[in-house]
Write a structure and sequence with these properties.
The chain is mainly alpha-helical. The chain has one domain. It is built from seven helices and no strands. It has helices at 4-7, 14-36, 44-49, 53-59, 63-92, 100-121, 131-146.
Length: 148
C-alpha cells in the first residue's frame, strides 16, 4: 500500500481555489455586515411590502428589534460558512476527494445562488451586485470540474 503522501497527491485547481476563496472571504464580510452594520429594515423592504416605514412600525413595534436578532444569527451563519468555504478551497480542493463537486454544487446553490435569485424576486437595490458571488461560485465549480 502506498503511503498517504504519494497516494493522495494534490493536483491543485488554481482558478477554482482562487474563486472559491473569494466567495469565502465575501461570505465572511457579508456575515460581519449582517451582524454589526445592517439595519433591521432597508429602504427597499417597506417598498416591497407596500407600506410606509411608519405604518410598519405602528403595526409591528417589535419588528426591528426582532429582525436585528434574526440578522445577527444569519450573519453568524454566513461567517461560519465563509470560514468553512475558505478551508475547503485551500485545504480540500487540491486533493479532489469524491463528492466534492456535488457538495460544492449543492452548497453554492442553496446559499449564494439562492440569495442572489431571491434578491431579484424582491427587486432589491443590491440585486446586480449579488450576482457576482453566485457567478464566482458557479465559475469555481466549473473550474474545479475542468481542473483549472
Amino acid at each position: 500500500m502506498a503511503p498517504p503522501t504519494t497516494r493522495f497527491r494534490p493536483s491543485a485547481p488554481r482558478l477554482a481555489r482562487v474563486l472559491l476563496s473569494a466567495c469565502g472571504v465575501w461570505l465572511v464580510a457579508l456575515g460581519l455586515y449582517f451582524v454589526f452594520l445592517r439595519p433591521a429594515l432597508l429602504p427597499e423592504d417597506p417598498r416591497y411590502i407596500g407600506v410606509t416605514l411608519e405604518r410598519l412600525r405602528e403595526a409591528a413595534p417589535g419588528l426591528e428589534a426582532w429582525l436585528r436578532i434574526v440578522f445577527a444569527v444569519m450573519g453568524g451563519h454566513m461567517v461560519g460558512l465563509g470560514i468553512f468555504t475558505l478551508l475547503i478551497a485551500v485545504v480540500l480542493l487540491p486533493y479532489r476527494p469524491s463528492g466534492t463537486a456535488w457538495a460544492l454544487a449543492v452548497t453554492g446553490g442553496t446559499t449564494v445562488v439562492l440569495m442572489s435569485a431571491m434578491n431579484f424576486v424582491l427587486h432589491s437595490d443590491f440585486r446586480w451586485m449579488l450576482v457576482l458571488p453566485a457567478l464566482f461560485w458557479v465559475l469555481a465549480l466549473v473550474a474545479y470540474l475542468r481542473r483549472i
